[in-house]
Amino acid sequence: MHQKSVLTNGLRVITEEDPHFHAVAVGVWLNAGSRDEAEEENGLTHFLEHMAFKGTPRLSALDIAREIDQLGGSCNAFTSKENTCYHGKVLSEHLPRAVALLSDLVLHPRYQAQDLEKERQVILEEICAQEDNPEDMVQVQFARGFWGDDAFGRPILGEEAQISAVTREQLLAYRGIAYRPETTIVAAAGRVNHQELLDLINSRFEHFHNGAPPRQRGRVATHPGIYQHPRDLEQVHVCLGTRGPAAGDQERYVATVLQLILGGNMSSRLFQLVREELGLAYNIYSFMSFFSDTGLLGVSAGVSPKNLERLLTATYQEIKKLKAEAVPEEELQAAKEYLRGSIYLHAEDCDHRMMRLAKNEIHFGHYITLEEIITGLQQVTAAEIQDLARELFDPENWALALLGPVEGEMGLDF
């Protein structure tokens, strides 16, 4: 059963109760991500998330770690381009303690100077780890090129030089703008009583206010092209992509099926051709990312330099085919059945249900049932897929990022 309430400060509390679970997953979702940062603030959203775990007036960093362990569940946080989420999963009997912990992390971090210096080093190590992971770095470089100098294209972790210079005053000033009750959602799924959670949240968040003017997100621009980043690696890492539908667009269902058929699972066209038939790569996959006002349809792979041209040719071949030919009915039905199974299987996890609950509220402002989603996917036709492929698969709107031992000119031929 789904329920929603709104506190007097605008904070929304939404729950999806299922008594068959023993656990409850709860998340505090703030409408603050890396795209909300000014250029000189790049990395501050992520830095704030890290600093929350360094201690509050009630709990030291060690106390926080012990509390998480004693609950026997999990507690963590993440920062994305559009959101920060502090979340936990515990047995339902421990919900009051979980809410107390999450509210402390969100509302009462101390940001002490000595903790800031320690966490600065942790984040710098995280940036170094990302630099050492070419699969991650090609995505970072693709974002820099495709989304350009806009905040949407800058790395969520920030740049080394900026993180090295972050001050406590900068963190507090940015937090004073970004953390707002009227754009905050508390979502919970599993064995949870709505009124119980509402009372817990109200007692801890009722004094959460922000009188500063909110920032408006700017329009996102794209910069198609080919971006080569030479590096001494064994493979060339590839990220190819274009702008796709936003999370709230009706075309999201068609785009989801299109992406799956292109490269979303082991029976997809790219996986079967590039890995199984040609043996060019250990892994190749497509992905679809939905944001509030835009989207990204992409393909990623790692390949030996000698096979790069063949891999790109094979990828372009499948993109051309989706534009030129309607998807056979058998293949379309198989994709729909895969998606239906994935949706129901993910619903067995209260963490996943909590996140779906929050994202529906963020993008649509209301609850969407599993059956509604499945119906939307089942109604997708082969003609709609072909029409969207023809719309999206214009090489003039695509970008290609290459990281590794790349030489010579590359083209987008589809």
Strand content range? 15-25%
Using the coordinates shown, work out and report the CATH topology of the largest domain: Cytochrome Bc1 Complex, Chain A, domain 1
The number of helical segments is 15
| Sequence stretches where pLDDT stays below 50 over 5 or more residues | none
CATH superfamily of the largest domain: Metalloenzyme, LuxS/M16 peptidase-like
- Terminal Cα separation, in Å? 47 Å
Overall body shape? globular
String of helices and strands: EEEHHEEHHHHHEHEEHHEEHHHHHE
Q: What does the model show?
A:
This protein has 414 residues and is α+β, with helices and mostly antiparallel strands. It has two domains: 2-205, Cytochrome Bc1 Complex, Chain A, domain 1 (2-Layer Sandwich), CATH 3.30.830; 225-404, 2-Layer Sandwich (Cytochrome Bc1 Complex, Chain A, domain 1), CATH 3.30.830. Helices cover 45% and strands 19% of the residues. The chain has 15 helices and eleven strands. The strands form two sheets. A six-stranded mixed β-sheet has the order 1-2-6-3-5-4, with helices on both faces. It has a five-stranded mixed β-sheet with strand order 7-11-8-10-9, with helices on both faces. A hairpin with a 4-residue loop joins β4 (74-79) and β5. The N and C termini lie far apart (47 Å). The mean pLDDT is 96.
Structure described in brief:
The chain is an alpha+beta fold and 414 residues long. It has 15 helices and 11 strands.
Notable features of this structure?
Cytochrome Bc1 Complex, Chain A, domain 1; six-stranded mixed beta sheet; 414 residues; single chain; 2 domains; five-stranded mixed beta sheet
